[in-house]
Design brief:
Elements (H helix, E strand, L loop, with lengths): L4 E4 L5 H12 L3 E6 L3 H13 L4 E5 L5 H19 L4 E6 L14 H22 L3 E10 L12 H21 L5 E7 L14 H9 L13 H7 L11 E4 L6
Parallel strand pairs: 1-2, 1-4, 2-3, 4-5, 5-6, 6-7
Helix pairs in contact: 1-7, 3-4, 4-5
Amino acid sequence: MSTKTAIITGGSRGLGKDMAINLAKGGVDIIFSYYKNENKAKEVISEIEVLGQKAIAFPFDANNYKSGQQFINKAINYLQKENSNPNFDFLINNAGTGTYNLVADTTEVQFNEMMNVHLKSVYFLTQSALPYLNTNGRIINISSGLARFSLPGMSAYAMMKGGIEVFTRYLAKELGSRKITANVIAPGAIATDFAGGSNKNQQKATLIANITALGRVGKAEDIGGTVAFLCSEKAGWINGQCIEVSGGMVV
């Protein structure tokens, strides 16, 4: 059986790193993007290689959709040289950032950044990758619990994540003839560096714990296993779905 390959955006830290490690533990080779911190990317590569899998990282600026196309081109060229075949199996659109502003205070620059990072770059990066995605491949997009429930200050971010959920259903419909599934994972509040690391703040963490059935803020390692499951043969009949992984936040 040939080794499968996953392409992950934003794989150098946080949720993306945990996704990469979980997939590598299951025997998957990893190609991932990083924004600026090449040293962090190298650390993740080393961790994956210790697990016996291949890994390589290329830069990607999610605020510029053309950068996503360039990232895919680099990944495909690498696969062609490494495997004499440009195709891959799993695409995980994870890269992202957040902005915290009430509707009354959100600027056009902030709105455009959320649109570019979470919607436009995902759309066109996926478009660039589609010709190379194997039959029976998987696409996993990352949304947010904030597309289901509302917390003040996150409107622009949450709107784009709602768009990703619609986009994913269209992918599932259009790619069904190729036996490619497309699903969404919607994390709840996670204590990472995302959006300035605000979920690490003790006061906010307590607030989140009080509205979460399992009584705590999420950790990065709560998410990667779900991604690995959706990439496994056991999840082959799950398609066009949004799976919220939040510990029961605002249920």
